[in-house]
Amino acid sequence: MKYDFDRVVPRKNTNCMKWDDTDAIFGTKDIVPMWVADMDLPIAKPITDAIRERTEHEIYGYPIQKPLSVIKAVIDRMQRLYGWKVRPEWVLLLPGIIPALYTTVKAFSCPGNEVILQGPVYHPFWSAIEDNGCHVSNNQLILKNSTYEIDFEDLVGKFNNRENSLYTPSHPKLMLLCSPHNPVGRVWTVEELRRTGEIVIGNGAIVVADEVHSELLFHNAKHTPFSTLSEEFEQHSITCISPSKAFNLPGLYTSAIIIPSAGLRKRFLDAKKNFVPKVNVFGLIAMEAAYRYSDEWLEQLMAYLHDNLEFLLDYFKRKIPKIAVIKPQGTYLVWLDCRKMGLSPATLQKFMIENAKVGLYEGSLFGPSGAGFVRMNIACPRLLLVEALKRIECAVNNMRN
Ligand SMILES: Cc1ncc(COP(=O)(O)O)c(C=O)c1O
d(Cα 185, Cα 27) in Å, to the nearest integer? Predict the structure, then answer.
């Protein structure tokens, strides 16, 4: 079937964070919201059909936490997309990826330990580390020729013995890897992932690969699950996936956490006990329908997002040259370099809210190197994207200098 992504589905007054919380977040209702990562686009029909069918049962009691057909849908998808043979016992279902990030830090680090991330990065990576009493060890990405790269020399340095220094934390035991990367849009190459793993795992730490954006790929970008690179990587990593981004189901809170090592799995399960809530009945139904029956929708979605991205790239180039676009290889999030505007993070945010009337994530939320940037979600009907771009154009081009 053909999906119409140009159709605007009104979301106001649906208890929707993106549209109904703008007052609390931005202090105004008069804003085009392009911030939080969900899509203003209708989901695949096989998913709505499956949910509708389940609602007719009339009883929504506690579901089992390892429904075989859902686990099988995850396994089949990994096999089909990547040739990865995942075993049923490796798969745990959680209500989202954020709880998995918190659980891994709790399970594999002690308060005071350093945990590696690569800023600028999705802000809950920072809070998962800090809220567990650990310290962020920021292997900051390098911006080179309008694209972000991993600083491998710095990554090696994270494991250098510091026993002789005043500050003597134990070596990091954990790295949170965002692959594909939110907000810079990189889809890491096999070579980059391999080098990362060799350094981190070679130094006795494990990698948590948050691969929630793995099915949102532009052009010829190819996602490789970190775990599939070698048996050693598989045994020393945790993979977090979910249909929540690619199939637009974040409000159904269901993710799959794949932990091949029995030892790591036990520690993860112990840490999660009485700490992470269970998954819900509709999330399970949606996950299975997304992974099994919704590829036709996903293909059309990516074509639409691709056109949105090309439109945006052209628009900034021609009409808002003061802002440089970091072209994403994946995700539907676009990282905009506003440093030429010469505004502090707080003033940039104020400018986008008050002058442009567009709700964006201000870049320093993702770490100090995000200062001067903003993140824009382009998963919306073209009409909305055009409206937001016009507002930004008008505000930027009316700046005094
Ligand atoms: C990298 C990344 N991880 C996790 C999440 C959130 O996942 P969930 O809603 O399943 O907790 C997001 C949401 O934007 C994300 O970008």
Answer: 28
pLDDT tens digits, residue range 255-311? 999 999 999 999 999 999 988 889 999 999 999 999 999 999 999 999 999 999 999
| pLDDT the model gives residue 163 | 53
pTM: 0.96
| Superfamily of segment(s) 17-42+295-395 | Aspartate Aminotransferase, domain 1 (3.90.1150.10)
How far does residue 243's CA lie from ligand 1's centre (Å)?
10
The set of protein residues with a Cβ atom below 6 angstroms from ligand 1 is 37, 96-98, 122, 178, 182, 210, 212, 242, 244, 250, 255
Quick one: average pLDDT of 370-393? 98
pLDDT in tens, 296-352: 999 999 999 999 999 999 999 999 999 999 999 999 999 999 999 999 999 999 999
Residue with tokens 């930027």: 396
Length of the chain: 401
pLDDT class for 160, splitting at 50, 70, 90?
confident
- CATH entry, 52-293, from 3.40.309.10, 1.10.1200.10, 3.90.1150.10, 3.40.640.10: 3.40.640.10
* Geometric angle at alpha carbon 345, from 342 and 349, rounded to 5°: 100
How many alpha carbons fall within 13 Å on the CB side of residue 73? 21
Start-end of CATH 3.40.640.10 domains in the chain: 52-293
Hey, what amino acid is at 390? K
Q: In testing the pocket of ligand 1, which one of 35, 181, 244, 378 has its CB within 8 Å of the most ligand atoms?
A: 244
Question: What is the arithmetic mean of pLDDT over 157-176?
Answer: 73
Tokens 């993860």 map to which residue? 268
**Ligand 1 midpoint to CA 38 (Å):** 10
Cα 213 to ligand 1 centre (Å) = 8
Decide: 209 and 354 in contact? Cβ < 8 Å: no
Average pLDDT of the chain is: 96
Shortest-distance Cα residue to atom 13 of ligand 1: 37
Distance 208 CA to ligand 1 centre (A): 13
The candidate with the shortest Cα–Cα distance to 181, out of 245, 127, 259, 115, is 245
Quickly list H helices, 158-261: 190-202, 231-235
